[in-house]
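input
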Amino acid sequence: MFQDPSFQITVTPLQYVLSIISGILVGFSLGLIGGGGSILAIPLLLYFVGLANGIAPGTPEYSYITHLTLGTTALAVGINAYINSYMHFKRGNVRVSEGIIFTIPGIIGDIIGAYLSHLMSGALILFLFGFLMIAVAIRMWKSKCNPNKSILSNNSHKLTLRERIKIDKVLPAGFLVGFASGYFGIGGGFLVVPGLLFSTGLDMLRAVGTSLIAVGTFGVAAAITYAVYGYVDIVISLLYLVGGVAGGYAGSAIASRMPRQTLRKLFAIIIILVAIYTMYVNRVGVVDLLHFL
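output
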């Protein structure tokens, strides 16, 4: 088990400032290109803010810093999602019933994922996280930027809740998405939206709005689980949140004037490069993976 190795990190004033800047960058990317932008929150906190600087991967100290980063970003992403869900709710893009039904099994998976993550080395988690980043980048590269597109009939909103919800799909989909969110300390909006489309009768626009209920709940639930083991820095999380709200507002304000499809592809390339760097730095995680298997 990779518990707190009984040492305390010292966060400098500069790192607090960099935390705000990181939040701005993440929020700006989310506002500009939509889902997937938050995938850089963890690498930014580790390597740009510098919480992991000077600590060798594979050590107990590195695992502690990794778990602290996961818990801290989970809290910031969760609160930010709740804030955004209110704005979507006012526009009529949130289906509370579908969101709750999807979220309930997800909370169970989320807590289990966060607990299992606590048992793993930081290098292993981040090495696997690199694969997730690449998967997100590929999906971002291939996706079309049409938030009003529906995968079902435009009359799908007239169906009853029982007709829209596929219980045999929503339970495993919610659980698996929640598990990934808890394990990696992410809100997982880029996983929740496909999960909702797969298991409910929502169109794309309502799936995006409704997903924020799950993203917020998964983030907060994961943060609480990490906090039990001392893996949440409230100050950094709040600074991340403040920067994220400001960046999100700026990104949304100019999104309509930018070539979003081109930006998504450029951002996908950036994510892949960061993923390669993350996997290289944490290559010792391969040894931990082999031991785990």
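quick obs: DSSP finds twelve helices and no strands in the chain.
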